[in-house]
Design brief:
Length: 719
């Protein structure tokens, strides 16, 4: 599931970055935190895959210009149908029934708004001095928490209770919610602490700083303050904050409370959050609590980039590849590529250096949103043997190579791999680059073309955690612990006209499913393929979605557990393909996983099928894909026709009726299959009763130009 953060015109870049980083820190192990613009909100089928929509701080008027009308209607319908909305500062003004901002000043804005999640007026700024695109009006304001909502008890969900009644958070131009306690369905979560500089200081009562509004079946939380702002990413030396000790210093003193408060708010919204013990943003120094100042590029709560280890199934392969990499390096042993810089570490016995980002940020970790991309990556060359598990505790490289060879032998013994004369002809996974925490396996290969050109066919890069994982189109792949994620290099001959490179994404997805379901005893596991390159599973009966499906009397819920991404470049007479794949292997959250399916199957059938490890599943997939790809290139020139029956047995769409929103007017069609030349989706028009139109022409769709929302039966243009 996704958390979408609006990034369209009017959004403050600073607020956007703080919002994305804080959400990734607190809920990033459960949700994919992504940006979306106005076009995406209007045209993409985002609602059913979204757990939270966030509009951060900025300017309200551009929001009204770009979102009024159809987009706002979709947002409001999403929330009323059970969705969640989080409006911060400008997003809170925008989410109210009406706005009154800086009345009587040149910045004055007032009027009605369409979302109307809060049924009253949002009025501000609460504190004077606001200036757009400036920190001169910033303040560290005190807020008093609603103890009935947040006070810690033994029964609080996800241990979301708090043991403090007030804290300080960042403020810059926010409003308050007038008479919030008078509106049904509205709960005040926090109030501004009354101070002399506050607007209307003589008015009775405290002003509501944050409210939760029940909207149909959904929930909207609106806040005039910025609980997402991490003080460790603010530069106290900025003269706009004034002389030290200033706003930043005061915020740093309460940073730990700020993070716990935001975590609790997200938990109250029904989101899965990081455990309390991981939400540590302050340390005691000489008895005084102070904020932790992170190095540039670091994100509080997001794990740091770790070294990459290069090893091979045979030491000679590592030696040859090491010579190639050293040939690309400068005198300091660095490979300086377009997107990344890699530092070669000659052996496990050498000291692994610590690097800071190559491009300093004026505000630590802020101006460079993806600072990890600028950090030099260490590649440790393991010439003699894979590294010990003390250095790679989440992935046993030696175990992987052992299982890779065993799987190859089993393929040969079964006759499936008889076309390979011996194991030395099998190449996928022979060399492996592994990192426990990386930016993105796909980016490190695809965006560094000079390096990628020199890597051998079948080279694999895998990771336990990706902090900037890439997916198809605007999507990215979530990487919770237990998700198998890897990228591999494939050299595909251009002259193989019978074997279009378009089918590679189909073959990889099919290989993932068949690597499991072709094993004896595993045939009935409900793994399926969704066009063009997603892997789905029938949710186990203990999954919450199945209870919903049973209540609605619908068919079993299908949920995504994996996906494939293929990027291509030309290299002489070959396509140089970088294939990325992520599949939930051992983790039950945020959807389900292969091992969860196996456990459920064992429980319901009494069988004892073995679970997969990351190492064994990766080996199975690589061997299966290599078998498929060689068969694809050979096969007497029949290409994908050899896999047609197998593919259709696994896919979800046979005879399904969908609506093509890419056509005007929209068109109802029945899915017939894929073409065998370029892998286009074949459809034919149907009438309202689902009958195929007599003499109707076949409508064909490209896999890279369309987005298929299976849950809604829509095929829309991919933005």
């Amino acid at each position: 599931m996704n958390i979408l953060v609006y990034s369209g015109d009017g959004t403050s870049r600073t607020s956007l970055i703080h919002t994305v980083n804080s959400l990734r820190s607190l809920v990033g192990q459960h949700y994919d935190v992504m940006k979306i613009d106005a076009t995406g909100l209007l045209t993409e089928p985002w609602e059913d895959s979204t757990s939270l929509l966030v509009i951060p701080g900025g300017r309200d008027l551009p929001f009204t210009r770009d979102l009024n009308g159809a987009t706002n209607a979709r947002i409001r319908n999403y929330v009323q149908s059970g969705g969640r909305f989080f409006g911060i500062c400008a997003g809170a003004y925008y989410g109210s029934d009406r706005i009154s901002f800086e009345l009587g000043r040149s910045l004055e804005v007032q009027g009605a708004r369409e979302l109307k999640f809060f049924a009253g007026e949002c009025r501000g700024a609460v504190y004077p001095g606001f200036v757009y695109e400036s920190e001169s009006g910033a303040n560290a304001v005190g807020i008093q928490l609603n103890q009935e909502v947040f006070f810690r008890t033994q029964q609080k969900e996800q241990d979301a209770g708090l043991d403090f009644a007030e804290t300080k958070v960042y403020f810059n131009g926010g409003g308050y919610f007038v008479d919030a306690d008078k509106y049904p369905g509205t709960t005040v979560l926090a109030w501004y602490k009354k101070e002399p500089t506050q607007i209307e200081p003589d008015s009775p009562g405290l002003k509501a700083a944050m409210v939760a509004c029940q909207v149909g079946q959904g929930l909207a939380v609106l806040t005039g303050v910025h609980p997402e702002y991490n003080a460790a990413h603010l530069d106290a030396r900025n003269p706009e904050y004034g002389p030290q000790p200033n706003v930043v210093n005061r915020l740093l003193e309460r940073e730990h409370e700020r993070r716990l408060f935001l975590r609790s708010v997200l938990a109250k919204m029904g989101l899965s959050v990081a455990p309390p013990e991981s939400v540590q943003a302050a340390v005691a120094v000489n008895g005084t609590t102070t904020g932790v100042q992170l190095p540039p590029g670091a994100i509080q709560g997001v794990p740091s980039i770790t070294p990459l280890f290069l090893a091979s199934v045979q030491p000679s392969y590592t030696a040859e590849l090491s010579r190639t990499l050293l040939g690309l390096a400068n005198g300091q042993g660095q490979i300086q590529e377009v997107n990344d810089t890699f530092q070669l570490v000659p052996s496990l016995q050498h000291t692994i250096p610590i690097h800071n980002p190559t491009t300093p940020a004026t505000a630590p970790g802020l101006e460079q949103e993806e600072g990890e991309e600028k950090i030099t990556k260490n590649i440790v060359l393991c010439a003699d043997a894979p590294p010990p598990t003390t250095m790679t505790p989440e992935f046993n490289m030696a175990h992987f190579f052992q299982h890779l060879e065993l799987t190859r032998q089993q393929q040969l013994a079964s006759g499936i791999g008889s076309r390979f004369s011996n194991n030395t002809n099998l190449i996928f996974g022979n060399s492996l680059l592994y990192g426990q925490v990386v930016t993105s396996t796909q980016t490190m290969l695809d965006k560094n073309f000079g390096l990628c050109q020199k890597l051998p066919n079948g080279f694999v890069c895998n990771a336990t955690i990706q902090v900037s994982g890439r997916g198809r189109g605007r999507n990215s792949w979530i990487s919770p612990p237990g998700c198998l994620q890897f990228s591999m290099v494939l050299r595909h001959p251009v002259q193989a006209v019978h074997a279009s490179a378009v089918f590679v994404q189909y073959l990889v997805a099919l290989a993932v499913v068949e690597s499991v379901c072709s094993l004896p005893g595993y045939e009935e596991l409900p793994l399926r393929l969704k066009w063009p390159n997603d892997i789905y599973a029938e949710a186990p009966l203990d999954h919450p979605s199945q209870a919903q499906a049973a209540t609605a009397g619908s068919s079993p819920k299908m949920i995504k557990i994996g996906g494939v991404l293929v990027n291509s470049n030309f290299d002489g007479s070959e396509f140089l393909l970088v294939i990325g794949c992520g599949v939930n292997a051992t983790n039950p959250n945020p959807t389900t996983s292969i091992n969860h399916l196996i456990r459920h199957y064992n429980n319901t059938t009494g069988k004892t099928l073995a679970l997969f490890s990351q190492e064994t599943l990766l080996a199975q997939i690589l061997v299966k894909f290599e078998q498929f790809h060689r068969q694809f290139l050979g096969g007497n020139g029949t290409g994908f026709a050899q896999f047609e029956d197998m593919y259709y047995r696994r896919w979800l769409h046979s005879n399904a009726i969908v609506t093509l929103t890419t056509m005007t007017p929209h068109r109802r069609v029945r899915i017939k299959g894929v073409t065998l030349d370029y892998g286009l989706l074949r459809t034919v028009g149907v009438d309202e009763q689902g009958r195929e139109e007599v003499g109707g022409e076949e409508i064909r769709l490209q896999p890279d130009g369309n987005s298929f929302d299976m849950l809604k039966g829509l095929i829309s243009q991919k933005a």
